[in-house]
Target: Methionine ABC transporter ATP-binding protein
Amino acid sequence: MSKAMSTVGTRVEFRNLTKVFKQKKAEIKALDNVSLTVEAGEIMGIIGYSGAGKSTLVRMINGLDQPSSGSVLLDGTDIAKMPESKLRGIRKNIGMIFQQFNLFTSRTAAGNIEYPLKLQGMGKAERKKRVAELLDFVGLADRGGNYPEQLSGGQKQRVGIARALATNPTLLLADEATSALDPSTTKEVLELLREVNKEFGITIVVITHEMEVVRSIADKVAVMENGVVVEQGSIYEVFSNPQTSVAQSFVATSLRNTPDQVEADDLLAYDGRLFTIELAEDSGFFGAAADARNAGVNISIVHGGVTTLQKHSFGKMTVRLNGPQAAIQNFYNTLNATTDIQEITR
Model:
């Protein structure tokens, strides 16, 4: 794409943000004193179950909802109480990518991408050039004349991404942008968003309930529950050592490195003791295993997985030990002093 379309990301900061909705006589606190920063050029994943407050949070960024209290700063400018007339100018720098694509069915792929450029008053020749660049960038150079009903879900979302990029935004908001797609198409769309971020430096905020999406694309993650950010950090920090029960639950859906209950029951049907060990660069597992083998213990790996994120490798491994009980207990005691080790029992 041309250099004219390159950009730089927006810094987003939430300060003590609270949002209360009034329903009849009841009040619902959708956001409760949220403080969170997305640095310029970062991809931030905001994850939570339904009702966690994540979609309300993203609506604060483009001024579609006003907070009850607190601040929303875009590059240092507080838009929390900004009038609609000024918000329209702010929104020109924000692109939206939707779960259900939100394409005009009466317009072709090219027509959907061209629409925001028409609203900006861009000339016809320049619009045509920009649309062609965008279609090529998202891999749909030969699909510009197709209507949405003639496109697959993944192709529709590519059109949605191209449309979001049309006005050369500095910030992209993706609200459950892959929830309607199959796993293979989801991967392709996430790779495209990662390329957008890498190529143009655009800040991207991804709202999702799928930890695999966060793992695939984000630099940092914020975990929300009941309107509160309960945990935040780099992808590696949260995935390798989740601190809250909700984060642990999400991570478990993405990292299949421990046996579930059915698998554990199957493993316990055989002789030996089972241990799940956290693998880290300094866990001491190999030394403890060598000592155990020298003492007559047989060690079999029966389950596990290792993941590399942000240049760090981590994971868990489940092993079965058969042999002298004193040596097995010494293996456990040695590792328990340096890393997390849990015995699986009935």
Q: What stands out?
A: The chain has two domains: 3-253, 261-344. Residues 261-344 form a domain with the Alpha-Beta Plaits fold (CATH 3.30.70.260). The chain is about 35% helix and 30% strand. Residues 10 and 40 are 5 Å apart (CA to CA).
